[in-house]
Amino acid sequence: MSITLAWVNVVLLIIASLLFITRRIFKNLGDKKSPFAQFLRKIMPLLQKIHPIIGVSFIVISFIHGYLALGLITLHTGLLIWLTALIMGTVAVVGKGFKINQKLWLKIHRPLALLLWALFFLHYFNPWLI
Ligand code: HEM
Ligand code: HEM
Hints:
Layout: H1 2-27, H2 35-70, H3 77-97, H4 106-125
C-alpha cells in the first residue's frame, strides 16, 4: 500500500509540474495556431484549475505513504520532500492573501518546486541518507 501511494504521489507531482512545463512550451511555440498549440491552450486552464487540489492531495497522500512506510514520522529524506511541499502550499496561500505583489510569492514557489524534485530523486535513489 505504501509503495502504491508512493507512485500516486509521483503522478501528482508530475501533474503539478505540468502547469509550468506546458506554459513554457506554449510560450516558445512559433505557430500558436498549430493543433498542438490549440491542445495546450485547452489543457493549460484545466491544469491551473486543478493545481491547488493536486498540491493539497500530494501533501495528504505523501504523509500517509510516509506513515505507512515507517510506522511513524521521523527525520527522513521523504520528510524533507513533504516539508518542502508544505512550505510551497503555505507560500501560495499567504502570497495570494497579500494583494501587493501577486507574482512575488511565485518567485519562491517556483524554485521550491525544483528543490522538491531534487529531494525526490534523493529519496528515491538514496532514501536512507538521513
Ligand atoms: C498545496 C500545495 C500547492 C498550492 C496551494 C499551489 C498553488 C499554486 C498557485 C495558486 C499557482 C499559481 C498558478 C497560476 O499562475 O495561476 C502555482 C504555481 C506553480 N506551482 Fe504550485 N501549488 C502547490 C503545490 C505545488 C507543487 C507540489 C508543485 C510541484 C512540484 C508546484 C509547482 C508550481 C509551479 C512550477 C508553479 C509556477 C507555474 C508557472 O510559472 O507558470 N506547486 N501554485
Ligand atoms: C512523509 C514523508 C515520507 C516518508 C517518511 C517516506 C518514507 C519512505 C520509505 C521508508 C520508503 C522505503 C525506502 C526503501 O526502499 O527502503 C519510501 C519509498 C518511496 N517513497 Fe517515500 N516517504 C515520504 C514521502 C514521500 C514523498 C513526498 C514522495 C513523493 C513523491 C515519496 C515517494 C517515494 C517513492 C517513489 C518510493 C519508492 C517506492 C518503491 O520502492 O517503488 N515519498 N518512502
